[in-house]
Amino acid sequence: MLCGPRSSQYRRRRGPGEKHMSGVVEFVRPAAAAAKRRAASGARRQPDSGRYFVQALARGLAAIEVFHDARALTLSDVAKRAGITRATARRLLLTLCDLGYAATDGKLFTLRPRALRLGYAYLSSMGWSEVALTHLRELAEIHGETCSVSVLDGHDIAYAVRVPATRHGVMLVPAGGRLPAYCTSPGRILLGGLPPDALDAYFETAVMRPLTKHTVHTPAGVRKLVDQARRDGYAFTDEELDYGVNCIAVPIRDATGAAVASLNLSAPSSRLRRRDAVGKILPDLREAARNIEMAIRNLPGRPMAR
């Protein structure tokens, strides 16, 4: 059976553009929308990049990124999603197969575990993932719920470190997984840390849609909640991403005070109500965030950067 890394997977009710796999609903972004999101998030060439831009490298990376929501793709799928010709896609994919990053059965292509090295290289370069993991484990043990550290990547949040719940009944997105920023508490924390012009650019290009009947998905509504999260120093979401799942998040700041990451705890809505989350869990989240910040600043040669 073909298999490969799957990112941005989460459970909820199916709707247009979704498929059902092994009892888990997996959201499938249309190719055009995915290309638009990549371009809007800064994947385009910079105006002055002609002196150094290596198009072959850019196309190779694009051929890897198109697997973000699919286990296996045909040659035509990759070409369409990456915006390249079939001939170019074939050369790139066969090269990735030769290098051990991909595999094929002659018709379908999949990523191989070696591709994880690209993501792990980023986590290792941050230096503070081990520090954060220690505090996440402590939080998860105390509260019995899933705890995570995430960063903003374009229109999404990407989970850098994640410790699953010690109790059952909460969805899991693995480290490296992605979720929309507009409807998640970590996303609203991180959007609140953007400079005004960057935040304006986000709202001009982000695609927002209701994932549940509780999802706030208008630019005005999301901006209001982002502003509130910035003022309050925390964000809480109530079944906006998925039915039955709530989440509370706080910022992790660098030496300048900028929010460069977010620490959050997620749990079934039956176990995580706003009043209890703010009164009982928020103080522990803030303490853990402060401990992570202090530990990071003491790491030699490992400054936290945006």
From TrEMBL:
Keywords: DNA-binding, Transcription, Transcription regulation. GO terms for molecular function: DNA binding; DNA-binding transcription factor activity. This is Helix-turn-helix domain-containing protein. InterPro entries: GAF-like_dom_sf (IPR029016), HTH_MetabolicPath_Reg (IPR050707), Tscrpt_reg_IclR_C (IPR014757), Tscrpt_reg_IclR_N (IPR005471), WH-like_DNA-bd_sf (IPR036388), WH_DNA-bd_sf (IPR036390). SUPFAM superfamilies: GAF domain-like, Winged helix' DNA-binding domain. GO terms for biological process: negative regulation of DNA-templated transcription. Residues 114-298 form the IclR-ED domain. Residues 1-21 are annotated as: Disordered. It comes from Vineibacter terrae. It comes from the Bacteria. Residues 54-113 form the HTH iclR-type domain.
